[in-house]
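Subject: Sanity check before I submit

Could someone independently write out the structure tokens for this chain? I want to compare against mine line by line before I put it in a report. The sequence has 145 residues.
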Amino acid sequence: MNDLEVRVADTERTRDDAFAVRQAVFVVEQGVDPEIEYDDHDETATHFVAYDGDEPVGAARLREAEPGVGKVERVAVLESRREHGIGRAVMDAVECEARAQGLESLKLHSQTRAAGFYRSLGYERRGEEFEEAGIPHVEMRTSLE
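---
Independent answer below. Compare away.
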């Protein structure tokens, strides 16, 4: 992990790389149906991809869910690359872009097992656990102010 870079996936190649990470994590590893992994929001969301050198190792997307509130979705790090700071770097890039877009706060649906990671970044849990794509989740929010 000597050459980690997170960038907005604004070309066909970088977007394909972000989708490849999502495919590996959500569809292959976690068994999420591809029909729900990829949706209409992919067309309009801001996508992010993390590279270690030339290898795509992480991804996320950001969209404005309601005025001033961004929703962070599809945060993924390849299983073999977890616990190396990639998720934190991806979230830093997402939050920086969200501020640049003028968003005031962010929300996300964290897999319950990942809630501690988001809590360490300043996100607070809202409400009860629920199921999404057959996986337990909790809603979490943070202010960007």
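---
OP: Matches mine. For the report I'm noting this point. The mean pLDDT is 94.
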